[in-house]
Amino acid sequence: MWLSVDQAAIIIRELDKAAPACSVDDVALGERLLVEHAPDLTVTELRALAAQVRDRLDEDSILPREQRQRMRRSLTIGTTSDGMTHLEWFLDPESAGYVVTAIDAMVGRQLRRVRFGDPVAPEPEDMDESDETRTLAQIRSDAAVEAFRHLARCADADAATGKSPVAMVVRVDLETLQTGLGTASIDGIRSPISAGTARRMAADADLIPAVLGGASEVLDLGRRQRLFSPAQKLALAERDDGCAWTGCPHPPSYTEAHHIRWWDAHTGPTDLSNGILLCSTHHHRVHDDGWHVQVRDNVPYFTPPPHIDPHQRPRSGGRIRMPSAA
Hints:
11 strands; about 40% helix; about 15% strand
């Protein structure tokens, strides 16, 4: 196994930051995890993973870092020379959870509408002939604009139903929830939050709890049926962390639940053990190129066909589990 100079430098730098607060064994555990996954990750993806490992090893630094991040929050608005409005927005993880979750939910719906067709005819004002040609960045921009347009039109529309248009998923271990010590995470947000912040958010918003059993296995929440239920998709999201493909950054809202053993061709059941979350691109790649998918010990593995990799080396995907500090 080999690493580039840049990858090695990232691992050393982030583990050095955590070293004063944890044991030598903890640092070695984090190093093994990073080295194991580095060959399948880009430098940017490895940097994000290394920061997560650092935070998990040095959980005592989470709260002061949250306070520093909160103090750095800002939104500046400017105008470019050609008349475009430019926003520069820095958000702490808690605030980013609300904003990113809402935008990702809207983008996910848009991507599915473009890919599969919307059974409900759009309102004339929402029709956009350029939908299928927009970049992902443009779709995100349009989603954010639509969120503010909706807020301006009907700020009190949800008061009648009491329902939230999007659901933020906060993931926390049962022990952390009970003791108030440790960290939690928000789906779609890479930076962790403290247990205290998770508790405070739970008192202020519609949150969906994800309860884990031993060894972080996801509890089976669904029943056998043709399509995966929302509860099953939430459970798959806990395991897969969005698109399960190795290194794919797409959040759960951008994905589709795929039967590993196909429902029709292989009579595959709609069970958690037979499901996996994939974005549209990687869903098509699995089907078109003939990748073999397996889930072993709660970890999805993707084995390429011989014409892509003659050695057919399985590549682990899904959520990368952070080491727990001793």
